[in-house]
Amino acid sequence: MSAGVERAGTHRAVGLRPIARARSAAGFTLLEMLIAIALMAVVALVSWRGLDSAMRAREGLVANLARTRTLGRCFSQLQYDMANLVTPDEVFGPPLRIMPGELVLIRHIGVGSDEPTRLQVVRYRLHGGVLARSASEPVSTLSRLADTLQHMERFPSAAASDRVVSMSLAVWIPSLGWVSDQAEVAQSYQRFLATHGISSFTSIGMPLPKGLRFVVRLGSPALEYSRVIPIGQ
Prior knowledge:
It is found in: Membrane. This protein is α+β, with helices and mostly antiparallel strands. It has helices spanning about 1-25, 30-85, 90, 140-150, 180-195; strands at about 95-100, 100-110, 120-125, 130-135, 155-160, 165-175, 175-180, 210-220, 225-230. The N and C termini lie far apart (about 125 Å).
C-alpha cells in the first residue's frame, strides 16, 4: 500500500515538472516587450532632450561670457581715453561731444614718452547694432584737428560688439546733475573758457563735466551694461 502511494506521488511530481519548464521557457509576451521598448524610448528621448538643453545652455553661457569680456575691454579702453581727455583751453572748445548713439572725444597721445604730446580724436559709435571704436591719426596743430573732426568717417575702426540694442550717454555736471544734451555740455565748457581761459588752481571748482555714464543694452533678451567713468581735468 505504501509502495503504491509512493509510486503515485512520484508520478504526480514527475508530471508537474514539464509544466514548470514550459512556463519558464515562454518568457515575456509580445505586449510586455512592446511596453518595455516604449519605456526605453521615452527614457532615451527625455535623456536626449536634457542633454540637448544642457549643451545649448553651455553654448549660450560661453557666447555671453565672450561678449561680456569684449565689452569689458571696450569699457577699459574708454576709461583710458577719458583719463587722457584734453582740457577745453587746449582746443578752445568742448573736448567731448555726446550725441544719440555717438561719443566723440579729444585725448592726449604719447603722454610720458620722449616725443611731444599730440592729440587724437576718438569716436564710439553705434550703427546697425554694431558698437565700434575708431581713432584718428595723431595731430599736432589745431587746424589739423579741425580738419580731422570733419572727416571722422575715414578713421579705422574696431568693433566692440555686434549685438548692441541701444546705447545712451550722459555727462555729470555738478550744477546740473546728469545731462544728455550736448548743448548743455558745450555751454558748461564755454562758460569755463569765458571766465578763466585756461585751467588753473582757481578753476578747479568750476562746474565742468566730471563724469561720463556709458550704458549699452545688448543681446536677446537685452541685458544692460553700465559704466560710470570720471573725466580727467
